[in-house]
Amino acid sequence: MSRIREPQMKHRLLLPLLLAALLAAPVQAHEGHDEAPAAATGQALPRFAASSELFELVGVLDGRQLTLYLDHAASNAPVQGATLELDFGGAKLKPVPKSEGEGQGEFTLQLEREPQPGLIPVTATVLAGNESDLLAGELDLHAHEPAAPAASARWKYIAAGALALLGLGAGLRLGRQRRAAA
C-alpha cells in the first residue's frame, strides 16, 4: 500500500515545482516584439503651440532659451523669410531667425530671466511676404518636480526567484507532512 501512495506523492510534489519553475522563467517575446521600448531619459521641455489658417507656431523653452518653429498650416513646410514679434507674458520681444541654410522657419530668443511657473500668455505677430497673421497660445510652465525612480527589470527577476523558492519550500513541506502522516 505504501507503493501506491509513493507515486501519488511524487506527482503532488511535481506540481508546485513545475509552477515555481514557470514563474521563474523569463517571458520570451515573439518576432517583432523582442526589443524593449525606449526609456524616457528625463522630463520633456515645456512648449506651447499657436495656429491659424495660415501658420503654425511651436515654442520650446529650455531655461532662458526659447526656440520657435514657424510652419505653413496647409503644408507643414517651414516659412521662408518671415519675421516674428512676440508678446511673451507681457514683454515685447523680437526673435532672431536661425541661419539662412537649414534653419528656415526656426527662430531663437534669449529671455532676460527664467519665467516663473504658471500660465504664460503668448501672442505672435507673423509677417511673411504679403501674408500676416496674429497667433495666440499659452505656455503652461510647471515647477520642476523630481522624477520618480524607474523600476528596474532586475527586481522582476528577484521577485520571480523569491516566488519560485517559496513554491519549492511549500511543495517540500507538503511532501514531508504527507510522509509523516503515512
Quickly count the helices.
2
Largest sheet: 5 strands, antiparallel
Gyration radius, rounded: 32 Å
Instruction: Write the H/E string, N to C.
Output: HEEEEEEEEEH
The amount of helix comes to 25-40%
Q: Layout of helices and strands, plus pairs?
A:
Blueprint: H1 2-24, E1 47-51, E2 55-62, E3 65-72, E4 83-88, E5 91-93, E6 96-97, E7 106-110, E8 118-128, E9 131-141, H2 153-181
Antiparallel strand pairs: 1-2, 2-3, 3-7, 4-5, 4-8, 6-7, 8-9
Helix pairs in contact: 1-2
Structure characterization notes:
With 182 residues, this protein is α+β, with helices and mostly antiparallel strands. Helices cover 29% and strands 32% of the residues. The strands form two sheets. It has a five-stranded antiparallel sheet, with no helix packed on it. Strand 4 and strand 5 (91-93) form a beta hairpin. The protein is rod-shaped and about 95 Å long.
Q: What are the defining features of this structure?
A:
182 residues; alpha+beta; five-stranded antiparallel beta sheet; four-stranded antiparallel beta sheet; 2 helices; single chain
Short summary of the structure?
Helix content is 29%, strand content 32%. The chain is an alpha+beta fold.
